[in-house]
Amino acid sequence: MDQRKVFVSLFLLQMLVLFGIIGYMLTEQLSFFDALWLAIVSVLTIGYGDISPETTAGKLLTLILIPLAIGLTTYILAQAAGAIISGEFSREMRKRKMNQKIKDLKNHIIICGFGRVGQQVLHQLHKENHSLVVIESDEDVIARLPEGTLFIRGNATEDEILLQAGLERARGVVVTLPDDADNIFITVTVKGIKPDIYTVVRAERNFSEEKLYRAGADKVINTSNIGGKRMATAITKPISVEYVETVLHDQSNDYNIEEILIQSTSLLIGQTLKEARIREEYGVNIVAIKRGPEIINNPSAANTIMEDDLVIVFGTSEQLKRFEGASM
C-alpha cells in the first residue's frame, strides 16, 4: 500500500467536503452546520433527504461532489483491501507489536549485523536465554532470522536506528559486520550515545584492532586470527580441541562457563575454596577469580573468597544456578 497516495487521497477528500460546505453556503444560503451536513451526506452518498439542494447551482455542485467523492473513496478502500489481501497490513501490525516489545526491553544485547558471525552470536546468546535485538539492513537477510527474533531494519551507524533498538537501556552491543571501517563507525556512534556500554567488536585485519580500541571498543575479536590459531591447535592437539568443542559448543550437553559476582551478603565471603567445599557442595570448578585488576588463574584451595570477586566457574546449568544462589 502506497501510504503517501492514500494520505493525499484523504486530504483531497477533506478538501472536497470543505468545497461542498462553502458551495452550499453560497448557493443554498445555508448555515455552516446545515452546509456541513449536506456536504457530508452528499460525499458519502447517503441522501437522507431532510436537507437537499433547491437551486440549480446547488444541484450542479452535488453532481460534481458525488462522482469525485465516489472515486476517491473507492481508491482508498481498494488500497486498504489490497494491503490486507497481500499481507502488508498484518506485517505492519506485527512490526508495531515488535517495536513495542523492543521499547519494553531492558538490559538486553544488541547485535549489529546478521551475517555469518552474527548468526553464531545470536545462536549462542539465544541458547543462554539473553534478550536480544538484531539490527540488519538487508531485507533478504532479515527473512532468515529465527522466528520470534526482535529486529530493527536499518543501518547501525545511524543514531535513530540504535535508539530504536533500545541502546540507552541495553547492557551490551556486539558489532559483527565484515567491514572494519563500518565497525569503527558503529563503535564511535554507539559510544557517542552511551559511553559506558560494553561493546564487543569484530575485526578482520590486525591493524584494525588498535583503531577499534581507540574508537571505544571494550573488546575486539579478530575472527581471522582466532580461526587460524584454532586450525593450528586442531592439527597439533586434535583430542584437546575436540574435547573443548564438545564441552562448549555441543548442544546435546549442558556445560557452560559463567561469570558470577560474589555479593556482600554471600556466606562464602572469608572462606577459602577448601573451606567452602565448592566442588563438593555445588559441583562447579573454579577456573579463575578476578579481583579488581588482578586475575587469579587456576586458584588453589588456599585462596580466600572475598566480596566483589568475579568468579569464573565451569559446570552444568543446574550446578551454576546453585552456586549463583550461594554467591548472593
TrEMBL record:
Domain annotation RCK C-terminal: ranges: 245-328
Keywords carried by this UniProt record: Ion channel, Ion transport, Membrane, Transmembrane, Transmembrane helix, Transport
Domain RCK N-terminal per the UniProt entry, residue ranges: 106-221
GO biological process: potassium ion transport
Xref: PROSITE patterns: RCK_C, RCK_N
GO cellular component: plasma membrane
Main location: membrane
Pfam short name (any one): Ion_trans_2
Family annotation (InterPro entries): K_chnl_dom, NAD(P)-bd_dom_sf, RCK_C, RCK_C_sf, RCK_N, Trk_Ktr_HKT_K-transport
Transmembrane segments: 6-26, 33-51, 63-87
GO MF annotation terms: monoatomic cation transmembrane transporter activity
The name this protein goes by in its record: Voltage-gated potassium channel
Origin organism lineage: Bacteria, Bacillati, Bacillota, Bacilli, Bacillales
